[in-house]
Amino acid sequence: MLNPNNDSERFIYHFNPEENEITMQTKNLAVYYGKTMAMHNADIQFKKNTITALIGPSGSGKSTYLRSLNRMNDDVATVKGQILYQGVDINRPKIDVYEVRRRIGMVFQRPNPFAKSIYGNITFALERRGVHDKQTLDEVVEKTLKQAAVWDQVKDNLHKSALSLSGGQAQRVCIARALAVEPDVLLLDEPASALDPVSTQQLEQTLRELKKDYTIIIVTHNMQQAARLSDYTVFFNLGEAIEYNKTRKIFTRPKIKLTDDYVSGNFG
Ligand SMILES: Nc1ncnc2c1ncn2[C@@H]1O[C@H](COP(=O)(O)OP(=O)(O)OP(=O)(O)O)[C@@H](O)[C@H]1O
C-alpha cells in the first residue's frame, strides 16, 4: 500500500499522451468557499467515451469538483488551477461560460424538469438560441428522448407537463434535455439517488449506451454502481483526490489503504 501523505508515492493514473484521447483534464485544481479550501490536489484526466465514477465519503469534495468542471461553482466559489477541455483552459476569465455549459452538460441528483411540457423541456435551450424550425425541433426531441431511452414511454404525451412524470422518467427527460444542445461531456451528480432499483438499472444501461458518443463523469455513493458502470474511478477523501485508476484496480487492488478501506466498507 502507498502512503497517501507522501506525494512522491501518490498514485495518479495517466493515460498515454495521445492528446485526442483525453476530453477533459484538471491540473492542480483547488476550490475555496470563502477562505475555506473544500477541495484540492485533483490532477485527473477523463478519456473520451468512458465513464469515470467519483466516489468518497460525504463532504469529501466530489460534487464541488464535478460542479467546477463546467463552471457551475463560479458564483459560490473560487476555483484555482487548470480545467482543460480539449486542451483549452476553460477556467480563465474570458471564456464563454454558456458555451462551456453547452459542451459540458450537467444532470442533477433530483430530477429537475422545468414546469413545461416534455417537448418544451427539450427544446427550451434551442429556442433560446433562436432555433424555431418545427421540423428541426421535432427531430431533436425524438432523437434525444430515444438516446435517453424514454421515447417509447412519452412519445404520445409530448405536450403533457414534464412535472407529471415519474422520477425515473423525469430524470431521463433531464438527460435528453442536456443532450439537446449537443454536449461532449455529461456530468451527473448522483443521478440515481432518487430512483427505485428498476429505474436505476435502466438509467445505468442508458449511460452505457451514451458513452459511445459522450464522455461521462458521475458522482455516486453506490459502490456497486461505480464498480459495474464505470471504466475509471477517482476516490476522494477530505477534499482530496486520493487515488485514481481503472475501476477494476480500484475495487480489487487499490494502491492506497484508505481507498481499500472505503471500497471494502471498513471506513471509520
Ligand atoms: N456552497 C457551498 N458553500 C460553502 N461550503 C460548501 C458549499 N458546497 C459545499 N461546501 C462544503 O465543501 C465541502 C465538500 O462538499 P461537497 O458537497 O463537494 O462534498 P461531496 O463529497 O459531494 O458530499 P456528498 O457526498 O455529501 O454530496 C463540504 O465541507 C461542504 O460543506
Note the main attributes of this structure:
10 strands, Rossmann fold, four-stranded antiparallel β-sheet, 268 residues, alpha/beta, six-stranded mixed β-sheet
Question: How would you summarize the topology of this molecule?
Answer:
Blueprint: E1 22-33, E2 36-47, E3 51-55, H1 62-68, E4 78-85, E5 88-89, H2 97-103, E6 104-107, H3 118-128, H4 134-147, H5 151-154, H6 167-179, E7 185-189, H7 197-210, E8 215-219, H8 223-229, E9 232-237, E10 240-246, H9 247-252, H10 257-263
Parallel strand pairs: 3-8, 3-9, 6-7, 7-8
Antiparallel strand pairs: 1-2, 1-4, 4-5, 9-10
Helix pairs in contact: 3-4, 3-6, 4-6
Bound molecules: adenosine-5'-triphosphate (ATP).
InterPro entries: AAA+_ATPase, ABC_transporter-like_ATP-bd, ABC_transporter-like_CS, P-loop_NTPase, PstB-like
Domain ABC transporter: 24-263
Pfam family, one: ABC_tran
